[in-house]
Amino acid sequence: MKSTHLYQWVTGLLVIVALSQCADHSILVPPGSPPVRLRVKTITQELPDNRSKISAFSYDAQGKLSAILTYQTPDSTVSEVEYSTYSYDEQNRFTQLRHEVVLYPRGNWPNRVEQYVYSYNASGEVSRIQYVNGLTLTFSYNGTNQPVGHTSNFSTGGLTINGSGNFTFTGHNLTAYQTTLNVTGHGVMLPSSGSNNVYTHDDKVNPFYGIYVIPSPYPNGFVNLQSSPGSPKAYFGGIDNVLNLSQNNVLTEKNPLLPEAESISYQYQYNAANLPIRRIKTSTMPLPAGNRTTVETLHFDYESY
Question: Please, which residues have CB within 8 angstroms of residue 78's CB and are 6 or more apart in sequence?
Answer without folding.
Answer: 72, 104
